[in-house]
Amino acid sequence: MTAPVSAPKKLFIKTYGCQMNVYDSERMAEAMGANGYVTTDRAEDADMILLNTCHIREKAAEKVYSELGRLRPLKDANPELKIGIAGCVAQAEGAEILRRAPVVDLVVGPQTYHRLPEMEAAARAGARPVDTDFPEEDKFERLPKGPRASRGPTAFLTVQEGCDKFCAFCVVPYTRGAEVSRPVERLLREARDLVERGVRELTLLGQNVNGYHGLGPDGAVWSLARLVQELAGIEGLWRIRYTTSHPNDMSDDLIAAHGEIDKLMPYLHLPVQSGSDKVLKAMNRKHRAEDYLRLIERLRAVRPDLALSGDFIVGFPGETEADFEETLGLVRAVGYHSAFTFKYSARPGTPAAERPVLPDSVLDDRLHRLQALIAGQQRAAQEAMVGREVGVLIEKPGRMAGQMVGKSDHLHAVHVADCEAKPGDLIRVRITGSAANSLAGRAL
Ligand code: SAH
Ligand code: SF4
Ligand code: F3S
């Protein structure tokens, strides 16, 4: 007689924050396969709920506790339900979370989630484990491997993690630790595996992805440009992107790569945060506004159609109206395809948190003015695409019959009418119109 096969347990993961958390959530789901878990998108059905959290701004961190409040009734109804906190709030607050939220069964930081299966077993045995180490071992190599499921056409691949830059406002160096680059061979192996499973576009991830300096198979230290060049040789992989970059790590070979490697898409997320030299200095960004503008010029010299996006913080302590106007001036000078704008949020433990904050009304006013400027640029960039022919990697069916949706080379969402292509097809499309956050087009 064979032992009865137990039904798989269900894991619900809610992901906050950046793309690296998206990648990490996928890895955690695979790892939990070793404990007999499959994922569910319904929290009510779950045997375990994992919140993969973000600590970047106060609002992001507070979301965790309000979500835990909403999960409480599920735990009351099902005492067997286990609730885990992963990600950057877990790293920053550790055991404090257990004190503040009795519903939480385990806390795991971003560098130790390969230990999650053991931790879940310990939690089932009645413990409340906390692991926020920065271990020596490579978590990616230690992750239990689940079945090789087929994949959609796009995927993230973490190549670098952590940050040594210590911008005065930012928690990432504390939550993700020092900059570590994964070795080239492991990345090539993972990339080939993803391509075999259907991936056509890879976005290489790192908190400072362009600071990548991984050990190559030849024993030399490889740059991101060299890694991209090697990945571009993988047959069946059609597009490569990378994010997020720091202006000071935009090396000559990476700039050149934008002109030389066809598979490297003409889109770059290059945060600058402010256009004021005084504020940049106070932020510890270690470059001037002028340096950023020269960098953009050099990039556009090799790739004139490069689409740029950025991150901006308004209301950094000490930012005057004149400083803010310099930010508006920089935005006008660059011309962004899109950009993320944030109100400064004081984060415990960061140097800037010691400085007096500006009134919230000032932050709101600056945020709205900056957003209006960027929205205009985004609209203009989209409208400039109308009439042009672009490549679109089809991702999924659209809402209308016969319609398919995908992304252009410049990362615009494109709705293609009467489209016979399947997810994973890379097709040529004529852009026929521009809507609020997407383009419309016709397959050629
Ligand atoms: N590693 C990336 C992204 C860091 S977090 C980088 O260096 O660009 C993403 C963005 O959040 C930052 O670029 C910044 O604009 C914003 N951010 C970080 N800390 C913040 C804070 N304390 N308040 C407001 N915005 C913040
Ligand atoms: Fe944070 Fe600055 Fe590092 Fe980016 S470069 S993760 S903003 S400290
Ligand atoms: Fe947030 Fe951590 Fe990413 S703080 S932005 S989840 S690195």
TrEMBL record:
EC number: 2.8.4.3
Cofactor note: Binds 2 [4Fe-4S] clusters. One cluster is coordinated with 3 cysteines and an exchangeable S-adenosyl-L-methionine.
GO CC annotation: cytosol
Chain ranges of the MTTase N-terminal domain: 9-125
Keyword tRNA processing: yes
Binding of [4Fe-4S] cluster 1, residues: C18, C54, C88
Catalytic activity: 2-thio-N(6)-dimethylallyladenosine(37) in tRNA + S-adenosyl-L-methionine = 2-methylsulfanyl-N(6)-dimethylallyladenosine(37) in tRNA + S-adenosyl-L-homocysteine + H(+); N(6)-dimethylallyladenosine(37) in tRNA + (sulfur carrier)-SH + AH2 + 2 S-adenosyl-L-methionine = 2-methylsulfanyl-N(6)-dimethylallyladenosine(37) in tRNA + (sulfur carrier)-H + 5'-deoxyadenosine + L-methionine + A + S-adenosyl-L-homocysteine + 2 H(+); N(6)-dimethylallyladenosine(37) in tRNA + (sulfur carrier)-SH + AH2 + S-adenosyl-L-methionine = 2-thio-N(6)-dimethylallyladenosine(37) in tRNA + (sulfur carrier)-H + 5'-deoxyadenosine + L-methionine + A + H(+)
Keywords annotated in UniProt: 4Fe-4S, Cytoplasm, Iron, Iron-sulfur, Metal-binding, S-adenosyl-L-methionine, Transferase, tRNA processing
Keyword Transmembrane: no
Domain of life: Bacteria
Co-factor(s): [4Fe-4S] cluster
Chief place of localization: cytoplasm
Positions that bind [4Fe-4S] cluster 2: C163, C167, C170
InterPro entries to which the protein is assigned, alphabetical: Elp3/MiaA/NifB-like_rSAM, Methylthiotransferase, Methylthiotransferase_CS, Methylthiotransferase_N, Methylthiotransferase_N_sf, MiaB_methiolase, rSAM, rSAM_horseshoe
Location of the Radical SAM core domain: 149-383
Compartments reported by the entry: Cytoplasm
One annotated GO molecular function: tRNA-2-methylthio-N(6)-dimethylallyladenosine(37) synthase activity
Assembly notes: Monomer.
Stated family: Belongs to the methylthiotransferase family. MiaB subfamily.
Its job: Catalyzes the methylthiolation of N6-(dimethylallyl)adenosine (i(6)A), leading to the formation of 2-methylthio-N6-(dimethylallyl)adenosine (ms(2)i(6)A) at position 37 in tRNAs that read codons beginning with uridine.
Protein name, entry field: tRNA-2-methylthio-N(6)-dimethylallyladenosine synthase
Organism of derivation: Pararhodobacter aggregans
